[in-house]
Amino acid sequence: MADYSTIPPTAKVQPKPYKVEIDANDISSMKHLLAHSKIGLATYENQQTDRRFGMNRDWLINAKKHWETEYDWRRCEKNINSFPNFTIPVTDDKGSDFTIHFLALFSKKSDAIPLIFLHGWPGSILEFLGMLTVIKKQYPNPEDLPYHIIVPSLPGYAFSSSPPIDRDFKADDMAPVMNALMIALGFGSGYIAQGGDLGSFIARQLGVENEECKAFHLNLYQLPAPSNASSLPISQTEKNGLDRAKAFTETGSAYAREHGTRTATIGLVLSSSPLALLTWIGEKFLEWTDADPTLDEILDSVSLYWLTDTYARCIYPYRTMFGGGAAKPRFAHPSSKPQGYSYFPKEISPTPVSWVKETGNFVHTASHEEGGHFAAMEKPEVLWGDVEGFVKAAWK
């Protein structure tokens, strides 16, 4: 069997192999809480199958039953463990220490290009498992793999340690931790960042602030219409996407304002019930995708959040974007480095390619007719193809 776990000899810190193995008592506790959780009475709003008022009650009833009686967390765990897992200690630019968990496909080529893939909320490393499978099939021998693939759990997510509780740690503080991770792995001479959702902001900030990040590729690029928008080409699909973005702002973003302005309250509320967490997160997977994920895909993500006590300690980034304050986020500053962009029509806020190109040095863009917010999970072959095309154009 091909071994993708060989640490590059240039690593400055030796990561430790890691195996995901949730305590059986924690799984039993989750199932017990589920069994004793009540689903609210039927209302006009929760009977709507188009989910225009949020979660559909009948879907939740069926999902709860499946989670209690048929769902197998160990299957998900086995899938995670089928890839090399590691943890590594890093220190950020303010002196805070972290233990960062990451998946990796390490190449044995001396000139392999380091790529870091960054998830967001309510995503996780699970988004990238399908893409890692695609890469392994394409490059079945690590001797031929042209890249080092790094997929970290962000600070506060899953198996990475929490942000410090003695200082105000926000979205802007995530990128320095990720840069420290790549330097610790021996990639200080250069790497490329890729991200969607919150990961897109981190990738942009890495490109703006860190010399080590030579280029970045995004599948979410939120920005207002440029001053010359009326003269730029835009397809009908992209016009529909702008309508989708408007609808998200008007009727789909209340969760983000809750995360950003009442972070403590919602964190405590959703840490008290796995069923409540399923309702909150499940809605996002149903609303933000092109084609509905399987129920097990949704339950994998919700179970990961619940079993690692992730939710309350990972929603802090929203305070930067929705918590008020006049300071411009560091990830919003421009960069002249090579950039790439993949347009997926069912993204929550899909920005036309022509608008994005106005903002920087875009060496590779791609427009797709299918796919949504969780591009790596929904269209792993497509996103990986875009990234490879971008790397060939960007890495000199």
From TrEMBL:
Short name of one Pfam family: EHN
Domain spans labelled Epoxide hydrolase N-terminal: 15-128
Signal sequence annotation: none
MF-aspect GO terms: epoxide hydrolase activity
Keyword Hydrolase: yes
Entry keyword Hydrolase: yes
Keywords: Hydrolase
A Gene Ontology BP annotation from the UniProt entry: epoxide metabolic process
Residues forming the catalytic site: D197 (nucleophile), Y318 (proton donor), H373 (proton acceptor)
Matches recorded under InterPro entries: AB_hydrolase_fold (IPR029058), Epox_hydrolase-like (IPR000639), Epoxide_hydro_N (IPR010497), Epoxide_hydrolase (IPR016292)
Entry's family note: Belongs to the peptidase S33 family.
Name listed for the protein in its UniProt record: Alpha/beta-hydrolase
Originating species: Aureobasidium pullulans EXF-150
